[in-house]
What we know:
alpha/beta, 8-stranded parallel beta sheet, TIM Barrel, 323 residues, 19% strand, two-stranded antiparallel sheet
Amino acid sequence: MGETSTTVHPWVAEAASQVRFGIVPAFLAEWQDLCRFVVDAEERGFDSTWVNDHPTRSMDTFTLLGALATATRRIRLMSLVSCVLYHHPLMIARGAADVDRLSGGRAVVGLGIGDDVPEFEMLGLDFPPARARQAALEEAIPILRALWAGEEVTHSGERFHLASAKLSPRPVQERLPVLIGGGGEKVTLRQVARHADMSNFGPHEWVGSAFSPEDVRRKYDILRRYCEEEGRPYEAILRSHWTPLLTLAPSESALQAKQEAARIPDAKLRTGPLFATPDSAIAHYQGLLEAGAQYFLVTVNGRDTETVDLLSERVMPALEPRP
């Protein structure tokens, strides 16, 4: 049921020829501001944007992605990530398929197990141990794949149940690319190797705790080994690294002023924002490319147009994919 193909998704394969960035604006609460930012990002050449799955503090993931689908033409639209314990797999499958159809085949489905204990409590959900949440993800992915493939699914498992469910209309893409968020080296990266088209982790305690290039290199070495064990090409996984907050300035003095005034997302958590000049940002991302990353997701302050300018005009053109 819903097996993952060993072929490389065309969007993943583009990593061999170009370094791409996805971008999302923090601190923009109004739809008009968010839409304007994403349309501008598309025009600047950013490859993707995404919506988090935090029902208590942001718009619904697939509602917002669907709206962005109608306002854009090229940019990829991700859920990053849909928590499999917040939603029944049929509802994730439905939302993702709708975004894919509305966008003409630009959806990327990020999946994860959830780490926000207060949010689980607000939703009236138990917060199981990590192993149980990982098992729920393992159970959900074949269901999603089968539904997107047009199969009729009957399933009775530990967490999820379906009775002769079939998804119509289906996604536009023959196979929706699936991202699994996190960098856990014992379970999560094995699940990436088994099921995903994209891996994403970074310097954040909820997203893999990859705080150094050495962390990144170690995790990719582990991912490569798991791919070999699962019989999947390592090149079938798009290797993405996330910057929790990127702030750029043209000089060190200007950067210091911005850093002192910065608003940091998830400030109570262990996280690694990046404050840099264009030259130091180029060195940072080139070092991550050397460590094995291929693709970058960055969060910026949505009002910080200077950072977006410097990233798109100075940093992105200077980076080359690792041979």
